[in-house]
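Long-time lurker. I teach an intro course on protein structure, and each term I like to show students one example going from raw sequence to a predicted 3D structure in token notation. This year I'd like something fresh instead of my usual example. Would anyone be willing to generate the tokens for the chain below so I can use it in lecture? Attribution to the forum is fine with me.
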Amino acid sequence: MDLNGIKVTPRDQQVLNLLVQGCSNKEIAGQLSISPRTVKQHLRTLFLRAGIRDGRKRVKLAIAAFENHEVIQ
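-- Reply from a regular --
Happy to contribute to a lecture. Here you go:
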């Protein structure tokens, strides 16, 4: 999956970075001072932008974010 064609806001990127680190939605929410529901919404929006309709494909999004993160560093 290529994240370059997907609109990713700075907050989306923060959520993805924490997801890649293995954080749960609750942990992500705590670190970003937002609600778990907001985290879920960020992820849902990213899934839709990436064309992911199956919740089990969350791992694919995390892997793509991780690979993109490695390229950026």
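Some talking points for your students: The chain has a mean pLDDT of 79. The chain has one domain: 3-72.
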